[in-house]
Amino acid sequence: MIYDVIIIGSGPAGLTAAIYTTRDKLKTLVIAGTKWGGQLQLTTLIENFPGFPKGIQGPDLMFNMRRQAENFGAEIIDTDFISGDFVKSPFKIIAGDKEYVGRSIIIATGTDTQWLGVPGEKEKIGHGVSACAPCDAPFFKNKKVIVVGGGNAAMEEALILTDFVKQVTIVYRKEALTRVSQLMQEKVENNPKIKVFYSSEIIEVLGKNKVEKVKLRDVKTQKISEMPIDGIFVAIRRVPNSERFKGIEKDEQGYIKVHEFVKTNIQGIFVAGDVHNKNYQQAITAAGFGAMAGLEVKRWLGGRL
Amino acid sequence: MADLNFTDNDFKTQVLESSEPVVVDFWAPWCGPCRTVSPVIDELAKEFAGKVKIGKLNVDENSQTASQYNVMSIPSVVFFKNGQPIRTMVGIQSKENYKQEVEQILAQ
Predict the structure, then answer these.
(1) Does a cis peptide bond (omega within 30 degrees of 0) precede residue A90?
(2) What is the reported pTM?
(3) Which of B28, B72, B76 sits opposite A210 (nearest CB)?
(4) Chain A CB within 8 Å of residue B74 CB
(5) Complex prediction ipTM
(6) Closest CA of chain A from B13, distance in Å
(7) How far apart are CA A257 and CA A108, in angstroms?
(8) Is A24 annotated in the active site?
(9) A78 labelled catalytic
(10) Class of domain A2-112+239-304
C-alpha cells in the first residue's frame, strides 16, 4: 500500500498536519515515535494555546489532537522512524522493523534535550539529573536544585521548581540574562527561592547512586568549586531531531532549511514545526506550520494527478 | 486481568520475595509521560502473565519505596530479580524496548 503522505512526528506540528491531510481525504500515516506527543507531553498547564481560557494540560492537548486526527482516519503508529530514502517520490521509510511507502513526506520530528555531556551526568539521568521539571519537581520537595541554562525554557523550569524545592540555583555561562523577556527576568529575580550564578558552568556531576554534588567552573577566572546539590535540571538548548534525514538540507545547527515556508530541498518532502523553526518553538507555531504543510502536500499531490 | 499495584506495605512480599522476575512501573497521577507508558505496561502484563509479574507503584502514595530505589524521574521502570533491582529504564520507552528487557531477564 502506498500512503499519500507519511508524517514523521506527532507533536502539534505532525498531528495538525494529519488533521488537515485526513480531512482532505489523503491516505495518511503518522509515525508517532515511542515518545509520541512531543515536548508538550513533558509540560503541565499550557496557557498560551488559543481556545482554552483556563489553560489546558499539555498531555491532554496532545491526547485531544491525536484523537482528532484519528477521528478523520489518520493511521498512527507508535514506533520510531529509523531511516528513509529521500531522493524522489514515492519515498520508502523504515519505522520499527517495517517499511512504508509514501508519495509525500512531512518531517515534524521537533527537537530534543541537549544534555551537558559532562562526566557523571549520563548515569544519573533519572537519579537527580532531569530535563523535565513538571515531571520530576515533586521528587525534590524541600531540596536544593540547579537549573542549567539562561533561556526562557530554563526560567520556566526554575519557576516550576520553586513550588516544591527549598532553593533553585540557575547556573548560566553568560554574564546576564539577555535571552529572556523582561517580564521573565523580573519574575526570576524577584523570586526569593531563586538565585543566579552567572559566568559559571557545571564540569562534573558527583554522587554515588544519585546526584550529591557538582563541580562548577567560573568561566572568567577558571576557578573550580564544589556545590552540594540534590538535583540538576538541564535546559541549555534544544537539538533538532534531523540527523536521520539524509539528503535534506540543514543549517549548521542541524535545523532543516526551508524554502517557501514548509518545503525542503527535495520535491514532495515538507517540514513543519520546531525541527526547522528555531526562532519560536511554540505549540501554536508548530501547529500553524503543520497546517501549512498539510495544505501544501494536498496542493503538491493534486498537481501530480 | 486486574491491574497489579504494589505498595510500600506489600513491596517486600510481592516484589522482593517474588519467585518470578518483577517489573515495577513507578508513576504518579500528575505525570504526563506516565500516561503514555501505562497502557504499554498493561499490555506487557497480559503478554507475560504467569512468567513475569508486571505492575505499578504510585510514588505519591508509596514514597518510601520510590526513594529507597532513588527514583527521581518518572516514569521509571525497574526490573527486579531475586529481590535485586537489576535494570532501570527512565522515561518513555518503546514497547519493544521493555519487551526485549523482559525477555533478556527471562533468558538469564
Answers:
(1) yes
(2) 0.83
(3) B72
(4) yes
(5) 0.78
(6) 25
(7) 13
(8) no
(9) no
(10) alpha beta
For chain B, 108 residues long, give each residue's pLDDT as a single digit of tens.
457 999 999 999 999 999 999 999 999 998 888 988 999 999 999 999 999 999 999 999 999 999 999 999 999 999 999 999 999 999 888 888 899 999 999 998
Choose, from B5, B8, B28, B31, the residue flagged as catalytic.
Answer: B31
Residues of chain A with CATH 3.50.50.60: 2-112+239-304, 115-234
Average pLDDT of the residues in A204-214: 96
Q: Which of B4, B24, B34, B77 is catalytic?
A: B34
Q: Is the pLDDT of residue A140 over 80?
A: yes
Q: A144 vs B36, which has greater pLDDT? A: A144
Domains of chain B in start order, with CATH, are 5-107 (3.40.30.10)
Residue B32 contacts A where some CB pair is shorter than 8 Å: yes
Say if CB A117 and CB A304 are below 8 A apart: no
Q: Which three cell numbers stand for residue A291?
A: 497546517
Dist CA A134 CA A18 (whole Å): 28
DSSP 8-state symbol, A63: H
Contacts with A277 (C-beta within 8 Å, 6 or more apart), sequence order: A255, A285, A286, A289
d(CA A294, CA B47): 38
